[in-house]
Amino acid sequence: MRLGRENAELTGHEDRTWHLAWNPKHPLLASCSADKSVRLFSYGTQNGLLDSPKFNPATSIPSVHSRTVRSVAWSPSGKSLATASFDSTVSIWERSSGSDDDGTASSGEWECVSTLEGHESECKSVGYSFNGSLLASCSRDKSVWIWEVQPDADFECISVLMEHTQDVKCIAWHPKEEILASASYDDTIKLYLDDPEDDWYPFTTLTGHTSTVWSLSFSPSGRYLASCSSDLSIKIWQREQAPGNRGEKWTCQLTIPNAHSRAIYSVSWTIAQEASAGSDEELGWLASGGEDGRINIWQIQAPEKSSGSNSSLRYSLLVSQSSAHGVADVNAVAWCPRDGFRDLLGSVGDDGLLRVWRIEL
Amino acid sequence: SKKDIRREVRSIWIDSSEEFIDAAEEGDNLPEVIDEDEIYDLLRSITDPEHPSTTLEQLGVVTAEQIKISGNHISVRFTPTVPHCGMATLIGLSLRVRLLRSLPARFRVDITVKEGSHQSESALNKQLNDKERVAAALENTTLLDVVNGCLATANLRGRDPIDAA
To answer: How far apart, in whole angstroms, are the C-alpha atoms of residue A269 and residue A255?
Structure first.
């Protein structure tokens, strides 16, 4: 198995590219950069397959941000894009009215329809909940904010969670339930639930990493959570009890030590693309990228049934792509979430480029 | 082209007057030799944030012995003047920025304070090696002005300003 390059490189950014996000409904990719801009790239499709020429710069969003745009996230409908910036704000972008709704790159201009203020310092990550009704953001100010998405691009802050003792680097929503996770410079991960009688609250703290936790990704089923750290390890945490149970526990079931040789900045989880023996769709494939310039793809597997009930998850390294962005760091990796395109992986790096890779079995 | 983009990206970080050109990008397959002495020369004439006329070499903050190179990995240790030195973050940031601007992009740099030399040793080390925090700090113009002030004489590389003139 190897990673094949689907494009030479998608250029346009004039400085380090920090993050990328695939639109879940339309053939669009968003990337953001230290140059303060957000760029969109389109890809052609024919009969549900990738067409050639494959990826094209679609548009640059004339950023309203005054500093680095650190992270981007699409709403589940694919109609809204959220951007988080070092200028401490989150912006929401939608295509102007009157445009087609076919998702093609040629339709309307993207406009900033809302700016969410409240964080006191650099905003680092943003994301929509599984059904798009909530948005979460986090910052160097140590807080996580939860916003209710209301009609007409209106956002109301419903909770400010001050649980971490240092910068919050990343947030991630559960794929099927209203469970939020956050990762921090304080080396911990926290998970939050909504108390219908009261406020959002942290129901558990996951400890074990020995340095900054940079990124989180839930497994497609939501039963597992992956985390990666400057301690060079990736950890897989497993939900122990039935969904919705307040007392639920998440425990570390697997540590991949020295998964990279320098800090690991990003993990992204997808269902396995190969129905071969031993593959487990629920566990699937995990991509990771980091300061060592590598992209690694890991297969996470269930314990062997014969080896007893208390054995833990297993992993194998499927692909290790060195120099994925030349001599530059890999800042983020993300699998395409669209049916028919799930073997596509996007990556961005300090070279200012966005690259798209395809798993070649 | 890819080369142009990379150059453009790097130009954000690199002064046009800087000493190094990435040999690999110039189509030359022989990368220049960068050793501990070369790194020391790059760093020794950086000045102290509180004493603009005193270099880090004169203060004993950086020494050749505290620099190690292994492949593309550079480790720089420095010794704050006092264990409660409030300027240690700025000194470390100045060292990092000097190397960011001077060295080819293939190098990875770790900057740490000498073991036992500062009361906030682990916090300092963590902050100086967090690329996101460093990037955010350098977007702060006040902070960047201070760093640029410390780097103003860095190109003397250990020479006396009068001799250099």
So the answer is: 16
The CATH number of whichever domain residue B154 belongs to comes to 3.30.300.130
Q: A116, A134 in Cβ contact below 8 A?
A: no
Peptide bond into B49 cis (omega under 30): no
Q: Which domains does chain A have, with CATH numbers?
A: 2-360 (2.130.10.10)
Q: Residues B20-68: pLDDT tens digits?
A: 444 444 444 555 678 999 999 999 999 999 988 999 999 999 999 999 9
CB-CB: which of A15, A169, A327 is closest to B106?
Answer: A327
ipTM: 0.91
Residue length of chain A: 361
Segment 249-308 of chain A within 8 Å of chain B by CB: 262-263, 291
State the nearest Cα–Cα gap between B46 and chain A, in angstroms. 26
The answer to whether the Cβ–Cβ distance between A86 and B104 falls below 8 Å is no
Task: Please indicate whether, in this complex, the C-beta atoms of B130 and A262 are within 8 angstroms of each other.
Answer: no
User: What's the rounded Cα separation, in Å, for the pair B75 and B92?
Assistant: 12
Domain interval for residue B91:
2-164
CB atoms within 10 A of CB A79: 16
Number of domains in chain B: 1
A-B contacts (CB, under 8 Å): 61
Q: What would the mean pLDDT of B125-135 be, rounded to a whole number?
A: 97
Contacts of A213 in chain B (CB under 8 A): none
Any idea which residue has 């079995």 for tokens?
A: A361
Tokens in use for A222?
């939501």
